[in-house]
Amino acid sequence: MNTQRAQEIAASPIMEHVTYEGTPIYIQHVDENTGMARIYPLDRPENEQTVPVRSLIE
After folding, report:
1. What is the C-alpha end-to-end distance of the chain, expressed in Å?
2. Which residues of 1-58 form beta strands (DSSP E)?
3. 18-32: per-residue pLDDT in tens?
4. Fewer Cβ atoms within 10 A, N terminus or C terminus of the chain?
5. Beta partners for 57?
6. Gyration radius from the chain CA atoms
7. Are 7 and 57 in contact (CB under 8 A)?
8. Integer Cα distance of 58 and 47 in angstroms
9. Which cellular component terms (GO) are annotated to the entry (predicted)?
């Protein structure tokens, strides 16, 4: 996924189907400068992590 699309998804009120390493996730924030996204798995919201945007699959 590219940074612009990740930002669109993060800002959208509609929940898009996005995965990280096969796990459905929610994108909290996207840092355009670093190309990193703050995410958490839908089934484990306490498990926040920062990952490269390019590793997210829509």
Report:
1. 7
2. 18-20, 23-31, 36-41, 49-52, 56-57
3. 999 999 999 999 999
4. C
5. 19
6. 10
7. no
8. 20
9. endospore-forming forespore
CB atoms under 10 Å from CB of 27, counted, come to 23
Question: Could you give the CA distance from residue 46 to residue 58 in angstroms, rounded to a whole number?
Answer: 22
pLDDT tens profile 1-58: 999 999 999 999 998 999 999 999 999 999 999 999 999 999 999 999 999 999 999 9
Q: What are phi and psi of 3, to 5 degrees?
A: -60, -40
Judged by DSSP in three states, 45 sits in: coil
DSSP H or E run through 5? helix 3-11
